[in-house]
């Protein structure tokens, strides 16, 4: 009677395990064999190319990826003990070779054969550790789901399931488990301050969980977390975290209330509407213009900020405007409109409470939805006392009352109201604004003139489409089922209207949006409805706040639109200031794939593509080429490891390198220990000890 064939697995061990943590590879082999799997180790493997791909060096990444495709060709199952390298092979190779049919087909073939280690054990082998292990004692273990394993490979259940089934293990929940730890490959070295703050939160969460052991399926994350030294906490970070958690918490509750299935259906509807509209933008802008004019309004198209400001300025001059009230408008911030009007001798008053606070403080917004998010209650109280001459009070209702009294008179005095627009409905020529304070309605109806400012991407075809966004926007922004005020303005006051402006002007602004429209990889950034959900879940935004983004649009979406709108020269750091954790994509109500666009921008910057000639740094480029050259040759990889070990060992203690002044390395070791390169690589251990024995396998 013939023996059943064992399941076979080819191990792609990853360069970090091969060179720094070979013992992890050894354990993976042992577990696989214990589960009855016949393991082989394809020779010549080095790096999958992910560090280069994530840094934008696509040409170099392709070399390593193609090499890996060759090495893993025809292997039945490829097992990778890393969520990020597994995601690279399963998901990102498809993007990397999108323009090459032959390589793309091979990447597609590989993507169906690649498994992350725990996923393979559970889904393919059906391994139950409790059936075969006999561990003693009880370890309390918390599990950190690495971002790419969670959001790109979508492996969620296998790791906790294995832990739960393992004898001697008691699993505890890690608070905020899905928050990125701050590794992000080159991010941890390029932005050590932000990375350290994210790490501090992860360490605090692990400590508070009561776990003795923190585990993850990615050695990059574990090297980062495990190397953590003392990291600090700041007032700003705490404030941002509280606010972000508040908005995001209510957003999640609102989604749970309608059920995730319904929510996904709405998101897909919204995406389809935006895709269609942005794909036919000229058609819908013409329809919008026709219908605004038919309703008695005037439409102005502005190609840039200078032109848009000149249009508003001219409308103000022609109508003898002395006082302007404004409801919230990110576009007016983008244009710097207040300064232009003030230079003309016009008094401009922001009437959204958050905008009013930052106008008094002489600051700029730090959040798309909550512009004064960075200010504490005490700071606002002090500001009101100083600027308005009122008694100091930290009572929020009292502060709101004071603002209301001051602003009420401004509404009555204003000659012109300026509003933004959440949506422009083409079929009716309507401008739609959504607020929670009612100031938008007063701005658009009380003064003689109403000027609406909107980016050209704000148009949607119909009122039926508007209904979809009215469900999504308040829930995504603040977790509200419905907004407090929804104002729809269609032209100026008519003869039989009781109130309303005598003139209605709609200024539709390009100001760099055409560049986004022209680039198929960035076009979806124009689907954004400025809900702020991506900011509230972004671990980088939560640490640095909105002002660190340097311009009007903060957070993940700001990192895409700012380079296009202000020029890459002033914003080339933004696309790199992300760990690519993918939380923004999951939160976005329009399913905007921000990480993919960041990768595209990184590629353009690193390789001087598109409208970014030679924007990357020469040092980065040299390092990338050097890394690719070394990683293309396993002999050089091992030689580099040995030399590195000899040079670094005198500076290390117990196999770890602490703070050092060595260039580049110091950016890691300023707050994290770094393991020395291993004395033997996993490849060498395999060759000497593992290849010849225990490979007969058993059925799992
Ligand atoms: S990118 Fe998505 S989540 Fe972020 S502000 Fe825009 S619509 Fe909201």
UniProtKB/TrEMBL annotation:
Record-level GO BP terms: lactate metabolic process
Recorded coiled-coil stretches: none
Protein name: Lactate utilization protein B
Domain 4Fe-4S ferredoxin-type residues, every copy: 518-540
Organism: Geodia barretti
Residues annotated as transmembrane: none
Pfam families with a match to the protein in the record: CCG, Fer4_8, LUD_dom, LutB_C
Record bears the keyword Hydrolase: no
InterPro entries registered for this protein in UniProt: 4Fe4S_Fe-S-bd, 4Fe4S_Fe_S_CS, Cys_rich_dom, FTHF_cligase-like_sf, Helical_ferredxn, LUD_dom, LutB/LldF, LutB_C
UniProt keyword annotations, A-Z: 4Fe-4S, Electron transport, Iron, Iron-sulfur, Metal-binding, Repeat, Transport
Gene Ontology MF term list: 4 iron, 4 sulfur cluster binding; oxidoreductase activity
